[in-house]
Design goal:
The chain contains two helices and 13 strands; from the N terminus they run H-E-E-E-E-E-E-E-E-E-E-E-E-E-H. The chain is globular and about 55 Å long. The strands form four sheets. Strands 3-2-1-6-7-8 form a six-stranded antiparallel sheet. A three-stranded antiparallel sheet has the order 9-10-11. The protein has a two-stranded antiparallel sheet with strand order 4-5. It starts with about 30 loop residues before the first helix and ends with a helix. By secondary structure, the protein is mainly beta. The chain folds into two domains: about 140 residues, Beta Barrel (OB fold (Dihydrolipoamide Acetyltransferase, E2P)); about 110 residues, no CATH class. A hairpin with a 2-residue loop joins strand 10 and strand 11. The longest helix has 12 residues. Helix content is about 10%, strand content about 40%.
């Protein structure tokens, strides 16, 4: 969200933690990748804050080490690093937290799809949470897996054909949308620890009759819990097919 359009509907209240709703355009994952000026896998190496000259708004500047580039449309990577600025931070004794804007710690491993066109955004990640994935590693093997803001891994991808210019066995499926799993707590030696379910799995609701035809009513479907989830290496390979 570009800061010029962000009306700071935070109603900044000095001396209090502030968090108000911010909205992002709902985007398909393909659109997130294709709209990004910058996409990369890397890690947070430094964080510092600054206060807007008006003295009522703070910003957090996050420096990332770029380990692998997916998209770089504006040569935003310098010396293997890039800086992204997020709304929020500390003004005097006030901690300003903007809903929908992520927070980071040094050492966080991430995949980012961001605006990086010289403008200032409340949250440069494309589509808010859609443009940021965290990386979870297997405690034993250190194999990496992307997870979303809710710690859900990727079970599979919905495919939309093959990437342009590729035919035959070497063709790479084009990703339309990742299918997310239930919440992953940890992974060790390939074994996934899932969040405990509060209730038993929900059975589908019975069919109903609508204008003479059988129509299946809506049902509550529990998120998938596959034996294996998409690795970071596979994820990056698929995403690069979109970015071409």
């Amino acid at each position: 969200m570009q800061l010029g359009r962000f009306t700071l509907a935070l109603g900044l209240v000095l001396g209090a933690v502030v968090a108000r709703a911010s909205t992002f355009e709902p985007l398909a994952f393909r659109d997130v990748v294709q709209r990004a000026d910058l996409g990369f896998h890397g890690a947070v190496v430094a964080i510092h804050e600054s206060v807007h000259p008006g003295g009522r708004m703070a910003f957090t500047h996050v420096r990332f080490r770029v380990d692998s580039t997916i998209v770089d449309r504006h040569s935003g990577i310098v010396g293997g690093h890039v800086m992204l600025t997020f709304a929020g931070g500390t003004v005097a004794s006030t901690r300003i937290v903007v809903a929908g804007v992520p927070t980071f710690a040094v050492g966080d491993e991430v995949v980012v799809f961001a605006h990086h066109d010289g403008k200032t955004y409340a949250n440069p990640c494309i589509g808010g949470d859609r443009g940021l994935l965290r990386v979870l590693r297997d405690r034993a093997s250190q194999v990496a897996y992307p997870v979303d803001a809710a710690s859900r891994a990727i079970a599979s991808f919905e495919h939309g054909g093959q990437s342009p210019g590729q035919v035959g066995a070497a063709a790479v499926p084009v990703v339309d949308e990742p299918v997310f799993t239930d919440v992953v707590l940890s992974i060790e030696a390939g074994t996934i620890a899932w969040r405990p379910r509060a209730t038993p799995a929900s059975p589908p609701l019975p069919e109903r009759t609508d204008r003479g035809g059988a129509v299946r009513a809506s049902s509550v479907v529990d998120p998938p819990r596959p034996d294996a989830i998409v690795t970071l290496a596979s994820f990056l390979e698929c995403v690069r097919a979109i970015a071409r």
